[in-house]
Design goal:
The chain is of the alpha+beta class. The chain has a single domain, classed as Pnp Oxidase, Chain A (Roll), CATH 2.30.110.10. The protein has five helices and eight strands. Strands 1, 2, 3, 4, 5, 6, 7 and 8 form an eight-stranded antiparallel beta sheet that branches. A hairpin with a 7-residue loop joins strand 1 and strand 2. Helix 1 crosses helix 2. The chain is elongated.
Length: about 170
């Protein structure tokens, strides 16, 4: 199934799939970050959680001590998919999640590995999202733009956008 069709028919499943495929995201925490920060997301659909590894010494994420509102921005240019995900983020002591999502890529950031006292695990719990996709077919895009230009429709019909309640 094409991603654009999956978003139209199964938007929540498509969102988790996109987070798994393109786990480089931008993260913002209300009241802490002035701008979104690049992070590596570790999606866990079975627990309805996105995990992040961060440093306590980081002046932004190290300040998270209680559930705080946060946003994730996802863009997958290979599939023309975008998502804006809102939820709460909090520090977690979940050893199982830490073990399951630990990787060589994460290890490179922490001198003492999983025992590094500067390591913190953050749990992001999505509450709502908007996911969008556009066709990557240049002929379809051109045809839809022409129909709009010549008055057959108000706007080009080249994509889909779904709003999700994830709480």
């Amino acid at each position: 199934m094409k991603m654009i069709d999956q978003i139209a028919q199964q938007p929540e499943k498509a969102l988790w799939q996109q987070l798994s495929e393109e786990n480089r995201v931008m993260l913002e925490v209300d009241g802490i970050t002035d701008y979104m920060q690049p992070m590596l997301a570790h999606p866990d659909p079975s627990r309805h959680t996105v995990w992040f590894f961060a440093k306590r010494s980081n002046d932004m994420f190290g300040a998270i001590q209680q559930p705080m509102h946060a946003r994730i921005c996802l863009m997958n240019g290979h599939e023309n998919v975008w998502a804006d995900i809102h939820g709460d983020i909090v520090e977690s002591e979940d050893a199982d999640a830490m073990a399951r999502h630990w990787s060589v890529e994460t290890e490179a950031w922490f001198d003492e590995g999983r025992l590094d006292p500067d390591l913190m695990l953050l749990a992001f719990h999505p509450q709502e999202a908007e996911i969008s996709a556009a066709t990557d077919n240049p002929f379809t895009r051109g045809y839809e733009h022409m129909k709009a230009l010549f008055g057959e429709q108000d706007h080009p019909d080249i994509g889909v956008r779904k709003r999700l309640d994830l709480a």
